[in-house]
Amino acid sequence: MAGFGFPLRGGFGSPLRGGAGSALRALAVAAGLLAGGGLGASPALAAGEEVHLPDARFSFEGLFGTFDRASAQRGFQVYKEVCSACHSMRQLYYRNLRELGLSDAEVRAIAATVQVTDGPNDDGEMFERPGRPSDRFHAPFANEKAARAANNGALPPDLSVITKARENGPDYVHALLTGYEENPPEGVELMEGMNYNKYFPGHQIAMAPPLSGEGQVTFHDGTTATVDQMARDVTTFLAWAAEPEMEGRKAMGVKMILFLTILGGLAYAVKRKVWAKVH
Amino acid sequence: MADSMVSHGAPPAAQDGETRRDFLFLVAGSFTAVGVGAIVWPFISSMNPARDVLALSTTEVDLAPVATGAAVTVVWRGKPVFIRHRTQKEIDEARAVPLNELKDPATDESRVKKPEWLVMVGICTHLGCVPLGQKPTDPKGPFDGWFCPCHGSAYDSSGRIRQGPAPANLVIPEYVFTSDTQIRIG
Amino acid sequence: MATGLHKSDFTNPVVRWIDARLPVFTMMQKEYGSFPTPRNFNYFWNFGALAMVNLLIMIATGIFLAMHYTPHVLYAFDSVERIMRDVNYGWLLRYVHSNGASMFFIVTYIHIWRGMYYGSYKAPRELLWMLGVVIFLLMMATAFMGYVLPWGQMSFWGATVITNLFSAFPVVGESIVTWLWGGFSVDNPTLNRFFSLHYLLPFVLFGVVFLHVAALHITGSNNPLGIDPKGPQDTLPFHPYYTFKDSVGLVVYFVVFAVLVFFLPNYLGHPDNYIPANPLVTPPHIVPEWYFLPYYAILRAVPDKLGGVLLMFGSIAVLFVLPWLDTSPVRSMRFRPIAKWFLLLWLVAFFVLMYCGGKPPEGIYVVLARVSTAYYFLYFLVLLPLLGRVERPLPLPESIARPVLRGGGPLPAGAVSKPMEKA
To answer: Catalytic residue at C245?
Structure first.
């Protein structure tokens, strides 16, 4: 201490601030850290050139967004009749389709269309039986090697959580499905067996354009199966498949925030009362 | 935590406005209690059977290979289910017993859908052991049914408790005959 | 010390009976009830309590998640998805746990910053501070191993890259890495031991937190003025004043937490971790979780493998000796007109490092990361020791009570440090 000689003043002119200002500062730091985290996390994902995804404006976006059931049901049909030829969805069970609004009988009928290996039976043999609601979605290939062998070495990814596994997932899937161009722009040399896609990183994708337009799928509700409509519906279905808890989660979140707001007001009032004698 | 805060939360030098403050503390305390309850419930609930477990609650059994007098054990919800193809003697025995002799009175007719097929959860109602009596070589106990080796409970050919510490008959699961030789349990 | 029953002041017969034999109530009353606490805390002083609550939340959700998780390379990813889909409220437990890790780091970083700004690390609180750094290290180890458990692409490649850091050490490096892995690559043995340690370390951490709090209750808390309480007029009993002040902060904390969990559950995560681990394909751009980005940037700022690793570990290690690097007798930066700005600049450097850690290591980001890394160490190793000697601090207030009371009412007779009524 000795040697500094700063005067200890008796007055109270020192730069002291009250509690309220400090609280604001604390919050600002918290917000800053959050923003810092966000900065760190999101730009990191855009490796290579920036590809701007069009905003498809899905029903399930936003604070109160819910899945459009009719669209998701059509999307399941698109998945079943088109995508499922190559893409598995191993985290889903046929019973999950009930949550999309399908009846129990419909779910049983859909499950029964696939053959599932079960067993061993009493003779020690594996056997095939029709699927049940408690079975996982049938996978098109037995394993990764078989999938690659059938697809020129490319692996069709599992679609269970695809909208969570891609940055800005729903918009990405929708953009990808509608982003094929028959003739690549000038100067782009496509490799053997590759297709040009505006929105795929690197623009060369092994998957051939999966959606071809009218006539490919016949929707029971009379909706016209354009490429955009099918892409939209199947994306809605995939978004639901990836986050089946989303509607309940948001609803619970709204209640939680409301509850905490009131509790926060009460806590602050109580604190003020307790501190009233000190200030 | 919330309660203790509320109960002695009043600062020592409490003077005026005491009622209003107490009311405020009461409301804040109640809200906190509700919040704590809301936090605790998901934890408790998460230990209940998950949806995939509940979905596996049916088992289909083909009865055709089970000869008269023989029995099979199948698994339903992770538990053994006894299916016995009863002989006429066993059926007659079970139906001859007067109800007032039974600890847990139930007619044999109420325990079967078809007299020759007895379908029961094979778990002793005492403390959860699996009784003997399914295999031809097993002891069947004094009532020609099942015998639990853990604490000596004996069941008759209708699966009713006749002797020993078990309080109730072997449980009949929900099942339906989907065809003459096929049942679905659950 | 005399044997026999503890003389309890409690009147409730049950409490009294227990307290006479095991004076836990007396201890709680002393440490959290009547404990004299500086009367001038600001809301920065909430964050220790928040960190404690956060730790308890992590342990509780973790225990329940472990009831459903399978630590095997073939089942880990699926078991996590099963938690998300089939287990009752499983998604809630998991999102609270994964975002809870982020919240824990936010809270802890602010808590550490509070200590740095108000000089809480200085004598006599050096050991308290060092225990805090141990807690921080344990947190980082636990968080890292927890991130491996879902066995997604980022789990796998994060584990591979971080464990490979040890290969930088000459001679023994490779053996250490093989030992960490329990094999010749990150595989099932690695996942199993990470799960075991991820379950163990939080309890070790809890033990160190206990020591951290015990040490705090010996020295007493620092405060925004950084001067010691001179008597009862400078302090307040911890309860009800700070229990209720902490409750206010706690609710605000829960609001931020709830926004993340219910509306942005994957915002702080990385999409690639929803792709099952594939040992044959590295994702094009791998980054650690946001809370490790500053250290990751330091690692990459150095063009030498061993040098980068050493500097990264050094960036934490330097915190251990911080109490002796800072030579100023004044604790609070409020009274250090020059050091304050250098410290704020250090904070800027920290955020720049966090930003650069998430960017590809090329071009301007490398330059920024290098400059920031240099300043990070310059602040601790050169500026702080020097400033303590050359800086002329502002005049310190005479006591805590008087400036706070400026413009306020008279000091209430009963409100100061008087033990509360017993339960």
So the answer is: yes
Q: Could you tell me how many CB contacts below 8 A there are between chain A and chain C?
A: 193
**Is the separation of the CB atoms in C9 and C209 below 8 Å?**
no
Nearest residue of chain C to residue B11 (CA atoms): C240
What is the rounded distance in angstroms from the CA atom of residue C373 to the CA atom of residue C357? 11
For chain A, say whether C259 makes contact (Cβ under 8 Å).
Answer: yes
Contact C87 B46 (CB under 8 A): yes
Query: How deeply is A116 buried, as exposed, middle or buried, from its count of CB atoms within 10 A (0-12, 13-18, 19+)?
Result: middle
Looking at residue C322, the DSSP 8-state letter turns out to be H
Q: Does B31 touch chain A (CB under 8 A)?
A: yes
| pLDDT digits (tens), chain C, 423 positions | 557 899 888 999 999 999 999 999 999 999 899 999 999 999 999 999 999 999 999 999 999 999 999 999 999 999 999 999 999 999 999 999 999 999 999 999 999 999 999 999 999 999 999 999 999 999 999 999 999 999 999 999 999 999 999 999 999 999 999 999 999 999 999 999 999 999 999 999 999 999 999 999 999 999 999 999 999 999 999 999 999 999 999 999 999 999 999 999 999 999 999 999 999 999 988 899 999 999 999 999 999 999 999 999 999 999 999 999 999 999 999 999 999 999 999 999 999 999 999 998 889 999 999 999 999 999 999 999 999 999 999 999 989 987 644 444 444 444 444 343 333
Q: What one-character-per-residue DSSP string does C196-240 give?
A: HHHHHHHHHHHHHHHHHHHHHHHH----TT-----SGGGEEEHHH
Measured in angstroms, the CA of C423 and the nearest CA of chain B are apart by 7
Chains that touch B (3 or more CB pairs under 8 A): A, C
Query: CB-based contacts of C4: which residues, under 8 Å, 6+ apart?
Result: none
Pairwise CA distance, residues C197 & C391, whole Å: 46
The answer to whether B13 contacts chain A (CB < 8 Å) is: yes
Nearest-angstrom CA–CA distance, A16 and C226: 12
Q: Can you give the pTM of this predicted structure? A: 0.86
Distance CA C401, CA C281 (A): 63
Active site residue C246: yes
**What ipTM, to 2 d.p.?**
0.89
Integer Cα distance of A174 and A181 in angstroms: 15
Contact between chains at C247 and B46 (C-beta distance less than 8 A): no
- The identity of residue B115, as a single letter, is P
Residue C289 annotated among the catalytic residues of the structure: yes
Closest-CA distance of chain B to residue C388, Å:
42
Selection from A279, B22, B19 nearest residue C412 by Cα: A279
Tell me which residue in C262, C271, C355 faces A252 most closely, judged by beta carbons. Answer: C262
Q: Cβ of C256 under 8 Å from any chain A Cβ? A: yes
3-state helix, strand, coil in chain A (%, to 5): 45, 5, 50
